[in-house]
Amino acid sequence: MTYKQELVDRYNVVKKAFSKKHKADRGITITGNTMIASDLGIHIKTTLPIDFGQGCFTLPHQAFQLISMIDSEEIWFEAKEDENKFYVYSDSGKFTFNFLMQELRDVFSVELDDPVAEIESSELAKAVRKVSFASGKPGVQTEIFSGIKLEFREQLLLCATDTYRLALFYPETEKHFVHKNEDIVIPTPLLSGASQILSGKIKLYLKDSMVYFVTEETTVAINTLNAKGYPEGLVEKVLPADFEPTLRVELSREELKDSFNRLSSLLSSNLTVKVVTSGDKVKLSGGFVGEEGFVEDVVRAKCSIEREFYFNLKFFLGIIRVMDSTSNIIIMEQGESSEHPIIIKTIDEKNKWVCIMMSVRPSSE
Fold this sequence. Notes:
The protein has 365 residues and is of the alpha+beta class. The chain contains seven helices and 24 strands. Helices cover 19% and strands 38% of the residues. A twelve-stranded antiparallel β-sheet has the order 13-10-11-12-24-23-22-17-20-19-18-21. An eight-stranded antiparallel β-sheet has the order 5-2-3-4-16-15-14-9. A four-stranded antiparallel β-sheet has the order 1-6-7-8.
């Protein structure tokens, strides 16, 4: 006997492995006291509140959807491998499901080496959210740029880029077991999905071409992309350790966000915005959509020098959206030239989270 909701909760975890495209023909595999779901590139295993012994069988995922609708909290199971059938008993009746003849790729029986890092699930979720907006879209950018790169150095680094902007985040790791100068790239949707279902302390393992995220109850295994296609030393080239900004601007996140909202209501989100820094203010302006003229707005700021540069409004809006609501002071920095990349960070996360956005040429050029 087991409680229905406990089983449904486990199903809700592993079903995240299924993409919408393949969900209809995918099954849930049960072996012993574990439940496993696999799709292209991702495999999820979680512990069940019941042990089915030595048997191994696969059920259509619709079986668990039906179980969730049974009007009874307590249910009983019986798996008969000689009949290829799975029986569910409850106070409201008996339900029968046929096993699926689906081959399971066993990625969970491999022997893992020492973990490369240990991180709280909330910190991983935050790190993914802080960089995923900058990753490219599959089919639009090269495949390698549609993922999030994890660099294992003295600190763990997550970074993503679509070649127009770059986001970096250094999460707090409780332990860094192995100093591995090894990089991996994980498809953004898969890493984002994994970060949302894992809870508690996570240990990260690398094995062959897979990365494993292991918690007490759940393990997620993801096929990595070939990191060799990622530009070598990209972070160091764009943001060298000895970087000294010529332009530095401090301004309120809320005031800048309000200004962007006013601009975006009149401008196309893809339009170029002109920025003029001067003393205690930043002037933002851009042309109207489909007609001649322009809109202009002013935000209070502290500017180190006077300068004029341009950026893509859509890209900057994406950065603003992932900033923490408690981070009210934004810092913008730029090198010697107005054509250099724009470095964006918040005053309370300047050592953890950095966004770098390419400046653009005026729309008229």
